[in-house]
Amino acid sequence: MIDPYRIRKDFPMFENHIKMQGHDLVFLDNASTTFKPFAVIKAEEEYLTRFTSNTHRGDYDLCFANDSKVAEARHVVGHFINALDKEIVFTSGTTMSINFIALGYAAKYLTKDDEILLTLAEHASNILPWYKVSEMTGCKINFIPLTKEGRLTAENLKKVISNKTKIVAVAQVTNVLGFVNDIKEIAKVAHEYGALLACDGAQSVPHMKVDVKDLDVDFLSFSGHKLCGPTGIGVLYGKYELLEKMDPVLSGGGNNVKFETDVSVKYLPAPAKLEAGTLNIQGIYGLVAAIKYLEEIGMENIEDLEKNNRKYAISLLKHIPDLVIYNEDAESGIITFNMKGVFAQDLATYLNSKGIACRSGQHCAKLLHHFTGELATVRMSMYFYTTKEDIDALANALKNGGNFLDAYFA
Amino acid sequence: MPISLSPMMMRQIIMDHYENPQYKHAPEGDLSRYEQVHMDSANCIDDIIVYVLVKDNRVIDACFDGVACTISTSSTDIMCGLMIGKTFDEAKYIVEQYNNMIHEKEYDANVLDEAIVFMNTSKQAARIHCATIGWDALDEILEHHHHEEK
After folding, report:
1. Tens-digit pLDDT profile for chain A (410 aa)?
2. How far apart are alpha carbons A26 and A383 in whole angstroms?
3. CA-CA distance, B47 to B41, in Å (whole number)?
4. Is residue B2, in this structure, part of any structural domain at all?
5. Which residues of A334-356 are buried (b: 16+ CB within 10 A; e: fewer)?
6. Chain B interface, best mutation among A32, A342, A345, by max B CB count within 10 A
7. Is residue B1 part of a domain?
8. Among A26, A123, A220, B111, fewest CB within 10 Å belongs to which?
C-alpha cells in the first residue's frame, strides 16, 4: 500500500501547511479539482523559463523542441489510456471535449429520427452539449433508468436502447453518486445496436486504470486538473476513423493546409484539424508531468488506497446519528451525504469553519434530484493523498450535531 | 435591538425565520399588483421570487417564495418584515445599512432590528450571496421605481 504521508511531501499545498479558518486544511473536494505536485509546477515553469515559443512551423530550434514536446505528450497520454498518439486531441478539459463530440460529430450526422441516451446522474457537461444537438437536429434525448441504488447497468440500457439510438453518452464514474459503471458491457450493448459510446472519464481516469481499447469506447473525455495537472488542459480520445469524420468546432490557425477565396478549405488530418488556435503548451508540459507522476505511483496503487480510504470513511460515517449517506456501496472516493434537518449548504459552511473543504449543492448534476429526491447534498471526495486524519477530521466535525450554524457565531 | 445579542439568541432568530417564515408565500389575491423579481444562483440552489406591493412611494406588502437555504430564507423573511410600511427612502436606507454590515463597513444598527443576526456573514464569505439574495431583489425593485420617478 502506498503511503499518503510520504506522497504529501510532493505537494506544495501540503508542504506549505495551508490553513483555512485557522485550521490545517482538510481537502476533501478532489472530485472538483486536485492539488499539483512539484513535478507539474516545475514542468510548467520549464516551459515559461526555458522553452517559451509557439509550436508549428517555426524554423528555429526552440519551436522544434515544442513540436517534439507536443508529439511526446500525445504519446504519453496515448500510452496512459492505451490509445494511438493520433487519437489524442488536446482540449481545454472534459467540457470542451464533450462539446467537440456533440457539435463536431453528433450535430453533423444525427437527424430527427435518431436518439441520444443519457442518465439522470450525468454532469451538466455531459447533458447540455447533447441538448444542443437535439435543438440543432431535432433528435430525441432519452434517459436510461438507473437502478434503485442509482447505478447504470447494461440490463437497464437494454430496456431502452433501439436501432434509433445513435449515441450513448455516460460517465464511467458519476460525479455525485460515484458508482463505477461497467463501461465495457455498456459499450458492447451500444455497439450491438449500432450506437456509439461516448464516455465521460472526468471522474474515472484520475483514479483507475482506463484502457480505451479494452473498454472499446468510441470517445473518452477527461480533464488534466482532476489528475494533478493544470487547469485549462484536457483530452478528447476518439477512434481515429471517428476523429476523421468529425468537423472542427473551432477553425483557424494551425488546423488547415490551405484555403481559397472561393470559401474552400483543406483541413489538416486529425488530430490537428480539431486543435485550431495556439495550444495550451504550458498546460501540455504540466499534463505530461502529471501523468508520469501518476504512472510512477501506479494507477492500481491509487485505486487500492482510495478503496481502503473509502472503507474506513464509510465505517466512521455510517455510525454518525442523523447522517444520511446516499451512496454507501459505491466504489469510488466520492461519498455524498446530508445531515437530517440541516440544509446542505449550512453543513458545508460549518465544515469550512473547521477547515474542511467539501462541496454542497447539486454538483452540476441538476437532474439527479429527480432520482434522489434531494435538492442539495454535501459531497466529500478523496484522492491518493487523503489520509486517515482527513477522514477523522470530517467524522469528528459531523458528530458535533446540532451546532451547524456555529460558523456564523465563531 | 441590543448589539449584545448572544450567539445562541442569534442562532435562534435565524432558525425561527427558517423553520417558520412569516412572509414565505406567494401574494394573496391579484398577483399582477405586485412587482416581482426572480433571483437564482449558479453557486447554490437558491431560486426565489420576491414580491413587493408599492403605492405612493411606500412598501405596502412584501413576501417571497421558492427554494432557499437557511440563511437566504431567514434573511429574506426578516427583510420582508422590516420593509412593510416603509417609504422608499427609508427602505433604501435600511438596505444600504444592511449591505454595509454584510461587507464590514460602518453601519447604523438601529434600523436593522433582527437583521443584525447576519453581522458575522463576512466570516463565511461563501455565504454573503445567501444573506443578500432577497435584499438584492428588493433593491432592484426600489431602483426601478427610483428611475421611474425621474
Report:
1. 899 999 999 999 999 999 999 999 999 999 999 999 999 999 999 999 999 999 987 789 999 999 999 999 999 999 999 999 999 999 999 999 999 999 999 999 999 999 999 999 999 999 999 999 999 999 999 999 999 999 999 999 999 999 999 999 999 999 999 999 999 999 999 999 999 999 999 999 999 999 999 999 999 999 999 999 999 999 999 999 999 999 999 999 889 989 999 999 999 999 999 999 999 999 999 999 999 999 999 999 999 999 999 999 999 999 999 999 999 999 999 999 999 888 888 899 899 999 999 999 887 888 888 887 888 899 999 999 999 999 999 999 999 755 677 666 65
2. 12
3. 7
4. no
5. bbbbbbeebbbbbbbbbbbbbbb
6. A345
7. no
8. B111
Residue with cell 474552400: A264
Cβ separation A405–B70 shorter than 8 A: yes
Q: Are the beta carbons of A149 and A126 closer than 8 angstroms?
A: no
Asked if residue A90 lies in contact with residue A229, where contact means CB atoms within 8 angstroms, the answer is: no
CA distance A405 to chain B (A): 7
Q: Does A4-30+298-408 match A41-296 in CATH topology?
A: no
**Which one of A346, A360, A408 has the shortest CB-CB distance to B120?**
A408
β-pairing, A334-339 with A323-325? antiparallel
- A-proximal residues of B, 48-107, CB under 8 Å: 67, 69-71
Q: In this structure, which amino acid lies at residue A22?
A: G
Count up the domains in chain B and report the number. Answer: 1
Q: Minimal CA–CA distance to B72: which of A376, A89, A147, A132?
A: A376
Residue of A nearest to B19 (CA): A341
Q: Does residue A364 carry a catalytic annotation?
A: yes
- Are A361 and B44 in contact (CB < 8 Å)? yes
- Do A225 and A33 form a contact (C-beta atoms < 8 A)? yes
- pLDDT value for A115: 98
* ipTM passes above 0.85: no
Looking at domain A41-296, its CATH architecture is: 3-Layer(aba) Sandwich (3.40)
For residue B137, the domain's CATH number is 3.90.1010.10
The CATH-assigned architecture of domain A4-30+298-408 is Alpha-Beta Complex (3.90)
Answer yes or no: do B69 and A343 touch at CB < 8 A. yes
Indicate whether B74 belongs to any domain.
yes
Q: Are strands B58-67 and B47-55 parallel, antiparallel or unpaired?
A: antiparallel
Contact call for A346 and B44, based on CB within 8 A: no
Q: What helix, strand, coil percent values describe chain A, rounded to 5? A: 40, 15, 40
Residue-number span of the structural domain to which B105 is assigned: 7-149
